[in-house]
Every structure is written in structure tokens, then in C-alpha cells.
Amino acid sequence: MNVRDQDGIERESHEDIENTLVKHFQGIDKDPNLDRSMNIESITQHILKLVTYDKNVIMFKPIAEEEIDQVVQEMLNGKAPGRDCFIVEIFKAC
Length: 94
Description:
Layout: E1 3-4, E2 10-11, H1 14-25, H2 37-44, H3 53-59, H4 65-74, H5 88-93
């Protein structure tokens, strides 16, 4: 990864990149009139979205008791899933 400093010089070493970034971000929050929304959008558009909006909605929906029952029934017998060392058969019997 390479980074261009404020003079347009491309920096390649870890130390040079770190120094360039530190110099850039020092005091950047002190400018109250700086509109960062366009810059943020131009950067974040390149970040791969691993979780779609639809998947995010599914992940945060309430878990139904039936789903828990199904998962417990699918677990292999003779296993202790937690630190309490209760074997799966105990949960299947409940």
C-alpha cells in the first residue's frame, strides 16, 4: 500500500506512511467548517460490504423459541456445549 503526502510524494515504507497519516490527521477535527461528507463517501464506496442490509435485518431479528429448539435437537449427543459441562441430552430433555 502506498500513500501520497500533502506534497504529492508517494510514501511506501510503513514508517513513512504512518508519519504521513499522523501529520494529516493531527488537528483535522479542529476545523469546524470542514465538510467531510463527500470525502467519507469517496473513501467508503471502496470498502467491500460484507453484510447486506437484508442480512443485517435478519441477524438482528428476535430469536424464536422454535429456532432454539431446532438447534438443540440437531446437536450431537454426548457433547457439552458450555462451561457448565451439561451434556446436550439434558437440554434435549427439557
